[in-house]
Amino acid sequence: MTEIPGLHAIELDFVAAYVLDTSDGRVLVDTGLPYTTDTLTAELERTGGMPDLVVLPHAHGDHCGGLGPLAGIPVAAHGADADLLAEGRMSRPMTPAPHCPDHLREMLKGEPPVTDPIAVEVRLAEGVIPGFEELTVVHTPGHSAGHISLLWDRAGGVLVVGDAAANQGALTAAPVAEDHELGEASLRASPSSTSRWPSSATGPRSPRTPGRRSRRSGHRPRPRPSRRPAGRTRERRRSRTARCAARSARATS
Predict the structure, then answer these.
(1) Nearest CA to 103 among 8, 247, 200?
(2) Are 52 and 22 in contact (CB under 8 A)?
(3) Average pLDDT of the segment spanning 232-239
(4) Is residue 165 part of a domain?
(5) pLDDT, tens digit, 9 for 90 and up, residues 108-125
(6) Is 96 contained in some domain?
(7) Would you say residue 2 lies in a domain?
(8) In the chain, is it the N or the C terminus that has fewer CB atoms within a 10 Å radius of its CB?
(9) C-alpha angle with apex 170: 211 to 113, nearest 5 degrees?
(10) What's the predicted TM-score (pTM) here?
(11) Is residue 229 assigned to a domain?
(12) SS in 3 state form for the chain?
């Protein structure tokens, strides 16, 4: 397993969440499922505490299902899937790819799942996340219309690909998708000189690098700050939520 300073992978059954300790704060990518929240919160505490921002690569239930214990922390997602979550929906109709496992084909039968409406405070689009200058959103639609990957300016480039790809011993296109052709195009167009970290896998959880790794950027991670008092942490999160929402509104207006 490649070690990258500040990157923490959290195994949540068949999903992996990632914590990115950036210079602007902790960012959690993915939250897993409702029954993996104990593991999620324990691992967050073990690796340094609750995040300052939660990024959902897309709206599906195995990625937003662990939001329960993260109440009060701003949530960010692409506008297309933020609209879906606001309506209490977690998925649009999908179809299987030829390499789709049988158990996933069975899961596609029936109506798309629903949930209580989920508020997304920060609506993302292609480009740098407001308030987190090291993180760039890469829109990678296909698996979901609002699917994003997250590029971190660390160690030559770290790309958290979500479900834009699946780790089945090697990176493959997502086995289920709203639009397979668009998903394959998104995967081909995503930054190639980076280590790629998928969220869903049937093989060993490890980064995949298609081609030569680019030169390290020379960025030196800052020492992790000491734990802040709870009152200051809540005040900082409220302030960050307001700043992120304001910048997001200006960016999309």
Answers:
(1) 200
(2) no
(3) 52
(4) yes
(5) 988 888 989 999 999 999
(6) yes
(7) no
(8) C
(9) 125
(10) 0.78
(11) yes
(12) CCCCCCEEEEEECCEEEEEEEECCEEEEECCCCHHHHHHHHHHHHHHCCCCCEEECCCCCHHHHCCCHHHCCCCEEEEHHHHHHHHCCECCCCCEECCCCCHHHHHHCCCCCCECCCCCCCEEECCEEECCEEEEEEEECCCCCCCCEEEEECCCCCEEEEECCEEECCCEEECCEECCHHHHHHHHHHCCCCCEEEECEECCCCCCECCCCCCCCCCCCCCCCCCCCCHHHHHHHHHHHHHHHHHHHHHHHC
Q: CA torsion 40→220→171→47, rounded to 10°?
A: -10
Q: How far is CA 127 from CA 130, 132, 140, 143, 160, in A?
A: 9, 11, 12, 20, 15
Whole-number percent of the chain with pLDDT over 90: 61
Matching residue, tokens 């770290």: 158
pLDDT in tens, 46-97: 999 999 999 999 999 989 999 999 999 999 999 999 999 999 999 999 999 9
Domain count, the chain: 1
Query: The tokens of 174 are what?
Result: 């997502």
CATH number at residue 211: 3.60.15.10
Q: Strand 75-78 and strand 53-55: pairing?
A: parallel
Among the ranges given (22-31, 48-57, 154-163), the one the predictor scored with the smallest mean pLDDT: 154-163
How many other C-beta atoms lie within 10 A of the C-beta of residue 27? 23
Distance, in Å, from the CA atom of 174 to the CA atom of 172, rounded to the nearest integer, reads 6
Residue 202 lies in domain: 7-252
